[in-house]
Amino acid sequence: MRIYRSDGFPLPLPAGHRFPAEKYAMLASQVAGYAAPWMETAPAATPQELRLAHEPAYIAAALEGTLEARRQREIGLPWSRELAERSLRSVGATIAASRSALLEGCGVNLAGGTHHASRDQGSGFCVFNDIAVAALLMLAEARARRVLVVDLDVHQGNGTAAIAAHEPRIYTFSMHGEKNFPFRRSPSTLDIDLPDGTGDAAYLQTLSDALPRIFDAARPDLVLYLAGADPFHGDRLGRLALSAQGLAERDAMVMQACRRHDAALALTMAGGYAVPIADTVTIQAETVRLACAAFGDPSLRQAANQAKLKE
Question: What are the residue boundaries of the Histone deacetylase domain, all occurrences included (predicted)?
């Protein structure tokens, strides 16, 4: 099992920008406390890999900084060379995590989950769609026969759904806030809308009911899991009301389903905008720790379990 980090490629943002770029270094630091030997720097995705999910003209404009101002505003991040490099690394990390998962059972991207990017446009802090690129590449390389996307970010995975719409080997599942962004949606294979204020009990029961039929329908070799921390009750963009414990139970439920169905798991962090941002980092660090305890080799499992005991 390998864990891929991209915090060495910082994202410069103007003061007061609402995207919490600092969370990636904070998360990597926490995970490195017990899993440093299993961590690697994320490789960069290549333009050829990106073209599986994105139009060549869009790729060139996003990398060269020639997007129209309107299209740049839709992404929500000011263009820079650092943004372009960071976007390539984020996609490359999910590709690498998917390959690791298919070899060893699980792989982790400490960023990723950029599910709002469509074939020819970025959106919602997402430049390229790492989930769609990785899924299509694993199929193209015949590493996987069928891929399941389990998107539990609080926002619907519209970009992934649109890109995968005509690929029957990819099953897209998104469970998200009904009244949240994005307001123009592309239908997933299965979408579940949740009302504002949904808490642990209702959320976990809905997920428990959905997972068996999703896995039975998808029959995946690989699961790409977006473990968004933004359903948390303290998230400023979330509108749902899960506790940190509820989110940990959600993650464990997805991991157990992968184990039961003998599916490899590629884990991405997706969204999280709590105040303070340390709450998001704590939630995502527990997601990674659970994966290490469930899928790591004996040394990593022991380190992950010891990290829990020290809390």
Answer: 37-277
